[in-house]
Amino acid sequence: MALATQSAVAELVCFESSCRARYAITDVLYNCPKCGGLMEATYTGDAHDPVKLKRLFRERRMDNSPVNQSGVWRYRELLPFIEDERHIVTLREGNTPLLDAPIAAKYGGLDEVAFKHQGYNPTGSFKDNGMVTGMAQARRLGMKRVACVSTGNTSASMAAYAAAAGMEALVFLPNGKIAFSKLAQALEYGAKTLQVEANFDEILALVRTLADRLGIYLLNSMNPFRVEGQKTIMFEMLDQRDWKVPDWVVLPGGNLGNVSAFGKGLREAKAAGLIDKLPRLAVIQAEHSAPFEAFWKAGATGEFPAVRQPETLATAIRIGDPVSWPKALHEVRTSGGTVEKVTEQEIADAKAQIGLCGIGCEPASAATLAGIRNLVAQGVIDRGADVVAVLTGNVMKDPDYIYKYHTGHLEAPDGAAIVSTFGNQAMVVPNDADKIAALLG
Of 89, 91, 220, 433, which sits most exposed with the smallest number of CB within 10 A? Predict the structure, then answer.
């Protein structure tokens, strides 16, 4: 069945301003054949009444059809590269909440903050928003096998969507460099998993060679259709706020696909008349996996300073050579944003403060609050600013981290102890009601 709203002309275009070579939307491209730049999906020839569009998005929330229950495809007028609904396989991704967090706001130095929690997705992370669109393109192209390199969340998401689509999933990951709760998801969903004796960036180069040789569709963040799904996180956030634009959107940065997607989506929303300004984007990295922060602080000129052996307990952002940095740089600059780094201690303490709001998240997510705390202290973000912080993954993505922090056994990658500043250790008590009552006061 054709998507009734499909009328735009979709193309793949080189992101590099000096090139901008154009290709068919059905070409299997991750980089421009002419200059090597990243690719992006672009749309022309279609315009919508923004008032009617907002009403349509809201009405679809009450529709029980799978494509409208999806918090991604609900906004399909803004990602019109798929012409046939039969290519879509949805697990009802998106539909993630905006959560107020007064304790976290106080810790961060803000009057208030709202968390856009992507951990409420089907596989527990924001990756589902992009994977559903990437998988739709794979099905459209007639692909039978899909692959990714992943430290956890991407593999879990790709495996789930490949299983739903009836495809073979191939997961490549650094041996021993993964949270096992994430690996368990990929195994459960039937993915063929290969643990390689190399780091993330080395494995990505390997898999790109294999993908070209074996006709496998690659679903890492350089895939332009992943970006198309992830940008809907911003559409949904704006929709939830009745299209009121926040001052800042703060998010963790690993491979930098999210900031690339968010910036693109926000620019497109403005061009469509849905919003009248852009929020500023702040990207937060872990201090020993922070090449983008180093590049930004050095003026963003010259060669990108890739980190050969990135380290952080926040495994979801342990990336030393992020492929999406040119797009990310463009979006941060365009929005008037910034890039910051935080320590392992700062991430751990911020995570505990988020938990005190009744909101759980994986370690990488907590980099947002740690970064906000630093940026407010530096005067970059005003105390009264309207801030949305993105939590990228579910609390159960890395339960060992939580237990070790609260029991005082968490160590940084270099072996340094992380102080259990806000620890909440379980108590061992006797089987004695009087003694327990005395203990509890």
Answer: 433
Q: What is the pLDDT of residue 6?
A: 52
Average pLDDT over the chain reads 94
Q: How far apart are CA 20 and CA 14, in angstroms?
A: 5
Enumerate the H helices of 61-173 as residue ranges.
Answer: 66-69, 102-108, 127-140, 153-165
- Crossing angle for the helix pair 180-188 and 153-165, nearest 10 degrees? 10
Give the pLDDT confidence of 24-46 residue by residue, as tens digits. Answer: 999 999 999 999 999 999 999 87
> Which residue reads 């907590």 in tokens?
366
In degrees and rounded to multiples of 5, residue 363 shows phi and psi of -55, -45
Q: What CATH number has the domain bearing residue 364? A: 3.40.50.1100
Please indicate whether residue 297 or residue 316 has the higher confidence score (pLDDT): 297
Q: What does the alpha-carbon distance between residue 379 and residue 106 come to, in Å, rounded to a whole number?
A: 15
- Per-residue pLDDT, averaged over 397-401, amounts to 90
Closest CA to 324 of 120, 130, 112: 130
- Residue 129, pLDDT above cutoff 50: yes
* Domain of residue 281, residue span: 98-122+230-406
Answer yes or no: is 235 within a domain: yes
Cα-trace Rg, the chain: 21
